[in-house]
Amino acid sequence: QPDSGDPNHAALNENVNLLREATDAKGDHIELTMIDIPPCFTFEGVQLPASYLNFYIASNLVLVPVFGVNADEGALRTLSECFPSHSIEPVNCRELIRGRGALHCITRDQPA
């Protein structure tokens, strides 16, 4: 979170620092790809978990939540680099995030 005034800024920076020092089972450092999170979204005084990482991967497609903010473009660009053989499709999730999730969350449960 690039905004130092955001309530998640300090905790996320601490997590990044921990991951930079972490190694996998072979002792190799973990490769990190940084993607900024969108600015703080709230609904009725509750901070919502807006994230570009709640994407959904299909055959040759990655559906990426976007929120109509400047950070959207950078996230889409970074994810296109991470998935070069996939089409990157933005999906506006400003309303969906009010349910405390986004694209990946709504695809995980199947009705009985």
Task: Explain what the structure shows.
This protein is an alpha+beta fold and 112 residues long. It has 3 helices and 5 strands. The protein has helices spanning 9-21, 71-82, 103-107, and strands spanning 41-43, 46-48, 56-57, 61-66, 87-92. A 3-stranded mixed beta sheet has the order 3-4-5. The chain has a two-stranded antiparallel sheet with strand order 1-2. α2 links the parallel β4 and β5. The longest helix has 13 residues, at 9-21. It is globular.
How many separate helices?
3
Describe the global form.
globular
Strand content: 15-25%
Trace the largest sheet across and list its strands: 3-4-5
Fraction of residues in helices? Answer: 25-40%
Radius of gyration from the alpha-carbon trace, in angstroms: 15 Å
Which stretches of 5+ consecutive residues score pLDDT under 50?
Answer: none
Q: How would you classify the helix and strand content by structural class?
A: alpha+beta
What is the rounded distance between the termini? 38 Å
- The chain-level mean pLDDT equals 88
Outline the fold blueprint.
Blueprint: H1 9-21, E1 41-43, E2 46-48, E3 56-57, E4 61-66, H2 71-82, E5 87-92, H3 103-107
Parallel strand pairs: 4-5
Antiparallel strand pairs: 1-2, 3-4
Features:
single chain; 112 residues; alpha+beta; 3-stranded mixed β-sheet; two-stranded antiparallel ribbon; 3 helices; globular
